[in-house]
Amino acid sequence: MGAMYFQKSDRLHHAYRLFTCLWLHAGVIDLLLNMLNILYYYIYLEKKFGYIRIAILHTMSGMGSNLFSALCIPTSVSVGASG
């Protein structure tokens, strides 16, 4: 649906998957762990740096890790911002 399977996709028409798979999760445990991580770390970081900078940092690092993962391991399915 939105997961990144780089090897089977037409790379030009599916570039949006680098962005959309940031908000997909592999299951309930993955979702809960990501939410706990956001609650624990991001609240502190938002107070210190502002929510716009943190949102940009989160999006860019997620897209970068998904791109790196797609280039290094093209046969795997990528979901989430963990990379």
UniProtKB/TrEMBL annotation:
<dbReference type="Pfam" id="PF01694">
    <property type="entry name" value="Rhomboid"/>
</dbReference>
<keyword id="KW-0720">Serine protease</keyword>
<keyword id="KW-0378">Hydrolase</keyword>
<keyword id="KW-1133">Transmembrane helix</keyword>
<protein>
    <recommendedName>
        <fullName>RHOMBOID-like protein</fullName>
        <ecNumber>3.4.21.105</ecNumber>
    </recommendedName>
</protein>
<dbReference type="GO" id="GO:0016020">
    <property type="term" value="C:membrane"/>
</dbReference>
<dbReference type="InterPro" id="IPR002610">
    <property type="entry name" value="Peptidase_S54_rhomboid-like"/>
</dbReference>
<feature type="domain" description="Peptidase S54 rhomboid">
    <location>
        <begin position="14"/>
        <end position="83"/>
    </location>
</feature>
<feature type="transmembrane region" description="Helical">
    <location>
        <begin position="21"/>
        <end position="44"/>
    </location>
</feature>
<keyword id="KW-0645">Protease</keyword>
<keyword id="KW-0472">Membrane</keyword>
<keyword id="KW-0812">Transmembrane</keyword>
<dbReference type="InterPro" id="IPR035952">
    <property type="entry name" value="Rhomboid-like_sf"/>
</dbReference>
<dbReference type="GO" id="GO:0004252">
    <property type="term" value="F:serine-type endopeptidase activity"/>
</dbReference>
<dbReference type="GO" id="GO:0006508">
    <property type="term" value="P:proteolysis"/>
</dbReference>
<comment type="similarity">
    <text>Belongs to the peptidase S54 family.</text>
</comment>
<dbReference type="InterPro" id="IPR022764">
    <property type="entry name" value="Peptidase_S54_rhomboid_dom"/>
</dbReference>
<comment type="function">
    <text>Serine protease involved in intramembrane proteolysis.</text>
</comment>
